[in-house]
Structures are given as C-alpha cells and as structure tokens.
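Consider the tokenized backbone below.
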C-alpha cells in the first residue's frame, strides 16, 4: 500500500465529500434557472442520481471486483445517513429515492454502453428534468452548465486511484 493510499471507508468518505450535496434555489438562479423550492429539491435528487451513477462507474473502473460491493455499500450508507439532514431533499423518502435512482442508473448505463460521452449523459438528465417540468426548455443549456459544475466525473476516478 502506498503512502497516499486509502481504505475503502476513507474512499467512500472522500467520494461523498467530493459530491455536491444539494442545489438551492439561489444557486439555480445564479445559473439563470428560475424554480420553486420543490423544484430545487427534485433537481437536487436528479443531480444526486447523476453523481451516484458516476461514482459507481468509477468504483467499477478503479476498484477490484471483490471490493466493489463493500465500497458501494459504504457510499450508499453515507448517503442514507445524511438523507434529509445534510442532503436537502425535502419530503422524499430514502427508499423511494433509491428505487428511482436504480431506474436512472440503468438508463445512464445504457447510454454509456452505447458509447456516449459524460456530457451526453448529462444532456439526457437535463432532458428528463425538462420533461418532468423541473426546468423550462429555454433553461436546458443553463442546466447543462450546472450539471458540468455539479457532477465532477473526473474527480471520482482520481480519488479512487489512491485506494489500496
């Protein structure tokens, strides 16, 4: 193990710490997106889903298979522990969110299997948010900019390079 290596628990903490946890109405306004508090909470859930998708993709790419499940569970446990407190999601229940996230994860996985870029996956997420009337059509470009800023795809892989 190198001097900079991390345990799986340390890696899970680092991954969750690197993930932007919530998107406020004020932050969305800074991106030119006008929403209600409820819409901001729903957008937060979608941003979390996209982040978790990329975290799990990084785990699959960088961690030996025999440790992937343990690290994945540690990440989900950390998210559940902060659900509704440090993760501002309003009235959404963790189990309902987790079920919805699995649906999103399958959608995003299919796109990646088809060879699309992370930006195209974000565009798909933006399209879903528009279809669910969380943002207006003319705000989609602004939402894509927000997703680039709030979904640090490269950071997740870099963090996992030090897991020993």
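A designed sequence for it:
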């Amino acid at each position: 193990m190198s001097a900079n290596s991390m345990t799986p628990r340390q890696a899970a903490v680092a991954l969750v710490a690197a993930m932007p946890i919530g998107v406020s109405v004020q932050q969305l306004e800074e991106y030119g997106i006008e929403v209600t508090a409820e819409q901001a909470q729903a957008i937060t859930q979608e941003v979390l889903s996209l982040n978790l998708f990329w975290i799990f993709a990084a785990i699959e790419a960088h961690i030996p298979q025999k440790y992937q499940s343990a690290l994945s569970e540690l990440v989900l446990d950390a998210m559940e522990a902060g659900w509704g407190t440090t993760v501002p999601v309003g009235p959404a229940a963790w189990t309902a969110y987790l079920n919805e996230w699995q649906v999103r994860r399958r959608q995003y996985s299919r796109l990646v299997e088809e060879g699309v870029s992370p930006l195209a996956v974000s565009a798909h997420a933006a399209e879903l948010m528009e279809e669910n009337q969380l943002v207006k059509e003319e705000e989609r470009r602004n939402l894509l900019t927000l997703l680039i800023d709030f979904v640090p795809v490269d950071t997740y892989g870099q963090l996992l390079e030090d897991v020993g």
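The longest helix spans residues 37-62.
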